[in-house]
Amino acid sequence: MSSVSSLSTGVPHLPRSPLSEAISGGRAVPLPAIGIAVDSPAALPQVGPSVGLPHVHRGRRGGGCPAFTRPDEYMALREGGLVLVHLKRFFERRAISRCLEGLDDIASVADVPCGPGRLFPYWRRRGLAVVGIDCSPPMVVAAAQQHAAMGLRGEVVQGDAFRLTESLPEPPDLVASVRFCYYFGRDQRLALLRSLSAASRRYVLAQYKTGETLRGRKCRQRSRNRHGDEGKKYCSYAEMREEFAQAGLVCLGIQPIGPWSDRVFVIGRKA
């Protein structure tokens, strides 16, 4: 079992900041106004471009990470209504499970960016120690509360996905990056994948958008019409394999969520 599994249980770690006062005595305490805790750009790390979604902070010039600042609205946007949320979760997690099938040497995962801990319940069901990493202080606080409430092994830290080794206490067996890669062009995606690979002990799981599914073809064209080159990036399966290879990863498989989704998961092993 990975040494990450021996990390402290439910003890979130945060850099010292006004938001870090929300974590007291190794215990996450409730923040009734997480959604509006950080409205000032000066209070957020300078980490990335707005991507046209609500409450996203624009930071470092020339690229970086989308920094979502409203955990509650993020979850509503990502998961939808009561019926839709269950369908989305089922098919997304089924795709992840198919990627990880047969990989019995995974005891720990770094979820980056973890947001408010959306995938924490899935990692817990797999019995994994979980390190959650996000660049947005409100997301880190929300994820720390979720992590502590679920009694997960591991911790939550604030960090940059592009400099991931600086944030991880120890290398996990799996680094998972969901709903993130497709915000970036090819050069930045390669830099991101290399960061994920360098931080992982064994495997990297990344989610892409593709035009190779039925819905993907429609969404790709719609994105081009609306946003041109500034929209989310779509890749072919061949491009995904090539990018994994250039990041020092052996592509083990590509798993679409389904024909009704434009998202796929790619699983790779460190070469």
Q: Descriptors for this entry?
A:
single chain; 271 residues; Rossmann fold; seven-stranded mixed sheet; two-stranded antiparallel sheet; 7 helices; 11 strands; globular; disordered N terminus
Kindly summarize this structure in a few lines.
Helix content is 32%, strand content 18%. It is an alpha/beta fold and 271 residues long.
**Ends: how far apart?**
20 Å
- Strand proportion: 15-25%
User: What is the CATH domain class?
Assistant: Alpha Beta
What integer value in Å does the Rg equal?
Answer: 17 Å
- Chain-averaged pLDDT: 79
Domain count: 1
Low-confidence region ranges: 1-63
- Secondary-structure-derived class: alpha/beta
- What is the helical fraction, as a range of percent? 25-40%
Could you give the count of β-strands?
A: 11
Main beta sheet strand tally, sense and closure:
7 strands, mixed
In spatial order, strands of the major sheet run 7-6-5-8-9-11-10
Per CATH, the architecture is 3-Layer(aba) Sandwich
Q: What is the H-and-E element order?
A: EEEEHHEHEHEEHEHHEE
CATH homologous superfamily caption: Vaccinia Virus protein VP39
Tell me what the structure shows.
The chain has 271 residues and is α/β, with parallel strands linked by helices. The chain has one domain: 3-Layer(aba) Sandwich (Rossmann fold). Helix content is 32%, strand content 18%. The protein has 7 helices and 11 strands. The chain has a 7-stranded mixed beta sheet, sandwiched between helices. A two-stranded antiparallel sheet has the order 1-2. Helix 4 (137-150) links the parallel strand 6 and strand 7. It is globular and about 45 Å long.
